[in-house]
Structures are given as C-alpha cells and as structure tokens.
C-alpha cells in the first residue's frame, strides 16, 4: 500500500518515521514494545529530568495515578447514577464511586450541582453550548490575544452551534476587561451568554459587574475556569458561582491537579436538565469510571491540601515573575505584582519570540509554551511574542518562593547570557533528579514530610 498521496493533518515526517519503526519491528509484539519504549522515554525525560513549567499541566498524586489503571475502568456504566437510570445491571459499586465523586465536587466547589462525566473541559464547554444556545444566538467571549480559548470561539465548540460571537473588550495595558466598553457593547448586542474562559490568566475577572450588566435581558455569565478550577476550589482566587456566574466549567488536570478531564458546576435547578441531558445521551456514554474514581480522590486532596497548595502556587508565580525581571527577562503586569494565579507571562520578543524561545528552553529541559499577548496580530499566531510559564508542578515538587530564583537563573542563562543549552540542560537535570516526590496529597503529605 502506498501512502504517498494520503492527506495528513499530522506532521507527515513523524508519521513516516512511525511507519518505518513498525516495519522494522519483529512482528506485533515488537510493535507494542516500541509503544512502551516511547512512553518510558517520556517518563525518563519529562517525568524525571525536566522542570515542567507548562501552565495547563499538573502532576497527580500516586493514588490518583494508580486509580487510572484500576479494574473499574474496564466497566461499562453509561447514563445517570442509579438502578433505573442505568442501562446495565451490576453497577452498584460504580454508583458508589460516582456518587462519592459528585458529592465531593459539590463540597470542594461549594455548589448545589456538579457533573463528573466529561472527558475534557472542551466537552464540558460543548455541553454548555449544546444546552444553552440556539443557532443565531449572540454570545460574547474573550479573544485569544487577551487569553481567550478556542472553546468559546468560531473554531471551537461555540462555533459548532452557529452562534454569533462578539469580543469582550480588554484594556491592552492592564489586561483587564474594559468594563465601560463592555457595558456599552453588551447593551447593544444583548448577548444570551457571556463566556469568559481565560487560558492566559493573571488576575480575577469582574464577574459580578459583568453579570449585573447582562442581567436586564436575562443574559447568563459563564465562567470557563479550565485553568483556575484548583485555585477556586482552594479559595485562592475569585469564587465565580458566588459572584453571579450561572455555570462554572473546569479542567480537572490543570490547577485542580487531578486526572485530565472536565467538570461542570452550577446552582440553579433549572439548568440541571438541559446541562445533564447534553452530557448524557449527547456527549458521553461510557465515561471512564477509573477516571471518575481518580477525580474523586483529587477532590478529597483539594479539600485537605488545596488551600495551602494553591496559595504556594500563587506565591511561587509572583516570586518567579520578580526573579525573571531581575535577570533581564520582561514580564507582564510587573506593576500589579505579576500574577494572582499559577501563571507568569514573559514578553520574549527580544529573545526571538515565543516559538523559538520555548523550543530553545526545552533543549535545556525547561518546558514552557509560546503564547499570544496583547499587541500580537493575527499574522503572529504561529510566532507570538509571549511565553507562558506555570508553577503548578514545581510547587507540587515542594519548591518554595526562594527556589524560584534557581528556575529564573536557568532561563536567564539560556536567554540572556546565551550559554549553550547543553550546559544548562546538565544543571537542570542535576537539579531535578533529587526532586521526585509530589506533595500536597495523602501519599506524601506536606512538602518535606516524605523522603525523596
Ligand atoms: C484548557 C482549556 C480548555 C480545554 O480544557 P481540556 O480539559 O484540555 O479539554 C477549555 N477552556 C479554557 C479556557 C482552557 O484554557
């Protein structure tokens, strides 16, 4: 079979390499071995030798990771919890696990309703748009250069529903919502939903003010808290459901530090039927009960450790911002203390832009990502000026504010001093190798408690 004319969205050279690897394998068992070898290579590098500073990534506790491989994940359990609601018999223990998860989510997010069956926050947002809008409806959301996410734009779940999307106005200097302009535009547009989902997120949003502005025509404010869910659960950010948001969506695998998947939280009983019917039977059938079990334990970890863990994440971001700036790497929002989240945004235009900088830092085992920042134009999409740096994993490894200078120094050696990445890579590896224990969980307790 010749594949020469096959259209691929993936990098064709990487796929061609995979075909060559499979062709060279000694049969199917050898092919399986190649898969496992690749997984192990990632663990060896990203798992043990890198400083992972990707903002949407979090390490899970050993128990959460173990549960992802549990027997319960091989069972079929579609539908809502309960004997009559399920299609299948034999699900009584699955009902126990899932109901524990739902009740733990309600506790940790201090809300009346929660759903646990979303395979990703993208699916949660799809459920939301399926449930709450019709084609032609108007919604207002944040554009990407200000931190918005494709979920709420034409190219994502929102777009599939045929809605009209209008941008929420931001002040490019302060990165805040321009409330006056928003009020004027919202009154003209009268959006059914305002959905604020910030992937670049440094400070709380004016949820109360925006909710009040759209209240006269019963517009609903939705907080897509994919990134901020852990900070919200730990009480270290704003509390959107208490400030006027009708629905809070979240990723379980970002600051929440659980298994990668989605969560949906709300208080209004009128939303229960539309939202849950968009989840089942529209977007989820079997929904990975192993993941649900892992999510439930992650929620319990948040109840016990969330406050201190999330507070340390924020302190570390602020310390990292300051340490980077002191070393000649410009950081956004210096005048506001850099951040009240797990993120620090550097402007690396003068070092070659976000794409090249992120790849160069990765050669030194420092993992970050390129990011659009205000001032970038649509044609800068692939090569934006920003670099997004996250402090979730280094915090869970037990690092504190004082340690952030070490990380900033590694970055400055690559970017400012121009040292060869191979030299910095050796030092990053030596720094990370003794740090292999994730804290703020029932396995290892507080930083410093368990042996490395
Ligand atoms: C990451 C992100 C999502 C998607 O979350 P997944 O859990 O990866 O599906 C949705 N909205 C926003 C604002 C995000 O940053």
One letter per element, helices H and strands E, the order comes to: HHEHHEHEHEHEHEHHEEHHEHEEEHHH
Strand content range: 5-15%
Query: How are the strands ordered across the major sheet?
Result: 2-8-7-6-5-3-4
- CATH-defined topology of the largest domain: Aspartate Aminotransferase, domain 2
Instruction: List each distinct ligand once.
Output: pyridoxal-5'-phosphate
Separation of the first and last Cα atoms: 51 Å
Largest sheet: 7 strands, mixed
- The rough form would be described as globular
**Tally of individual helices:** 16
CATH-scheme architecture of the largest domain: 3-Layer(aba) Sandwich
Instruction: Return the domain count.
Output: 2
Low-confidence stretches: none
At the first level of CATH, the class of the largest domain is Alpha Beta
What is the CATH superfamily of the largest domain? Type I PLP-dependent aspartate aminotransferase-like (Major domain)
Structural class: alpha/beta
**Radius of gyration based on Cα positions:** 23 Å
Q: Helical proportion?
A: 40-55%
Overall mean pLDDT score?
96
Number of strands: 12
